[in-house]
Design brief:
Helix 2 (29-39) links the parallel strand 1 and strand 2. This protein has five helices and six strands, in the order H-E-H-E-H-E-H-E-H-E-E. The protein has helices at 3-15, 29-39, 50-53, 69-81, 114-128, and strands at 20-22, 42-46, 61-67, 100-104, 146-156, 163-171. The chain is globular. The strands form two sheets. The chain has a four-stranded mixed β-sheet with strand order 1-2-3-4, covered by helices on one side. A two-stranded antiparallel ribbon has the order 5-6. It starts with a helix and ends with a strand.
Amino acid sequence: SSPGAAEETAQSMVDEGADVLYHGAGAGGVGVFRAAQENGVLAFGADSRQSETVPDFANVILGSMIKGVETSASRAVQRVVEDDFRGGNVFELGAGEGGFELVWSDTAGSDVPQAVKDAVIDTKEEIAAGIVAVPLDTPEDEDAPGRRVHEVDGEDCALCGDPAVTTAYFARTY
């Protein structure tokens, strides 16, 4: 997780038109936040409340996606207690099993309208219920630093009714 590589990737996404960045680069996320701050865009953190752990960037961090580590550890311990633990096995935690949670920042996240926050909760519930499918595959060019993976053009925003252009990017940095 290199902050320099993450910043370079984030900059390429901003150059392509991204308004909001999301990373999964651990400590490398600092590079994403630096690019967001320098370009006047916003970002989401990962793994911890990054608006608190890297407060110099709190003004651009909308929130952080927190993995359900407590849930997975608790399930593993429960399996040991029940004599049902088998090392090397993988079990997945999705939206309905406590696999992740979006924690809004007290700084930039406080500017997010409640209607948007409610839509996020509704979408997570729809993912958990299987109504919204999350693709598990990746685009063809896995080596591209910032790839457009989804674009909705010309549809009306579900929240405000305005025509919207939303582009989501996927970035992988090492």
